[in-house]
Amino acid sequence: MIWIIVKKELDAYFSSPLAYVLIGLFSLITGVIFFNLLVSYTDGIQAIPPALAEEKSFPEEVVYPLFTNLNFLFLVFIPLITMKLFSEEKRQETLDLYWLSPVTDTKIFLGKFFAALGLIIAMLLITGVFPLVIWGVGIRDFSLLGTSYLAVLLNAACYISLGLFCSSISSNQIVAGLLGILGIMFLWMVSWGGHLNSNYAVAEIFTYVGITSHFERVLRGLVGTQDLIYYGTFMFLMGFLTVKCLGRRNW
After folding, report:
1. Could you report the per-residue pLDDT of 8-62, keeping only the tens digit for each?
2. Alpha helices, DSSP H, located in the chain
């Protein structure tokens, strides 16, 4: 049943201009960012003595800034993807069709979650041409590229679960989208608050609760159990709250 919901939502995405517009914009913006970073790196290598060229790190100069920018783009793109998944169906009262069937609220959430994640993966697949370009210009440093994609995917999964929760609490998709953007920004600001707090214990709590510190660790290949627990717990919590919001019809 989950797969049927996934297929339905993906069909809805690709039968409208939304998916194509988002994929096109994402490809254009990421292409420009990647090109500028790569040109800046290669120009910097050529401008310094060969003995110092080895000190310039390709991951530091290109990979980390690129994937940090991808994460920033998801601030807007993911709320646009998730904002109508529940709110529009609530407005049109088509959710009743799910509730008249034996499908559970959890399966509805998972179906819509994997559909949105599938669209994000389709967008990221476009960036698969970047390693080919890197290879073509003679750069063989692909270290940490895998964990960079993992970091972006984990963050995207958390943003999707948050966006679904926001969509479940409002029948207005614009409101749901704005709440999603504010929610993602709040996750970033919590991490920044950890750096600004002088109390060590409070700073550690803020740093752990915020998503930025976990993203940066995974991005640099420092994948720890605490990071995987954080991501898993966050998605579970958002899923739990979304299912509870859907269950309000029984109150």
Report:
1. 888 888 888 888 999 999 999 999 998 888 888 777 665 565 555 555 677 778 8
2. 2-14, 17-47, 50-53, 58, 64-82, 87-92, 95-99, 105-125, 129-136, 145-168, 173-196, 200-209, 212-219, 225-246
The count of domains in the chain is 1
| Alpha carbons 168 and 87: distance in angstroms, whole number | 6
Contact between 50 and 22 (Cβ < 8 Å): no
Which residue matches tokens 């920004």? Answer: 185
User: Of 152, 127, 160, which is closest to residue 68 (Cα–Cα)?
Assistant: 152
Q: What is the DSSP string of 164-214?
A: HHHHHT-S-HHHHHHHHHHHHHHHHHHHHHHHH---HHHHHHHHHHSSHHH
| 144-197 residue pLDDT tens | 778 889 999 999 999 999 999 999 988 888 999 999 999 999 988 887 766 666
Residue listed under structure tokens 């949105």: 116
**Cα 240 from Cα 238, distance rounded (Å):** 5
Task: For residue 121, give the nearest of 11, 37, 42, 26 by alpha carbon.
Answer: 26
Q: Are 120 and 20 in contact (CB under 8 A)?
A: no
pTM of structure: 0.89
At 86 the three-state DSSP class reads coil
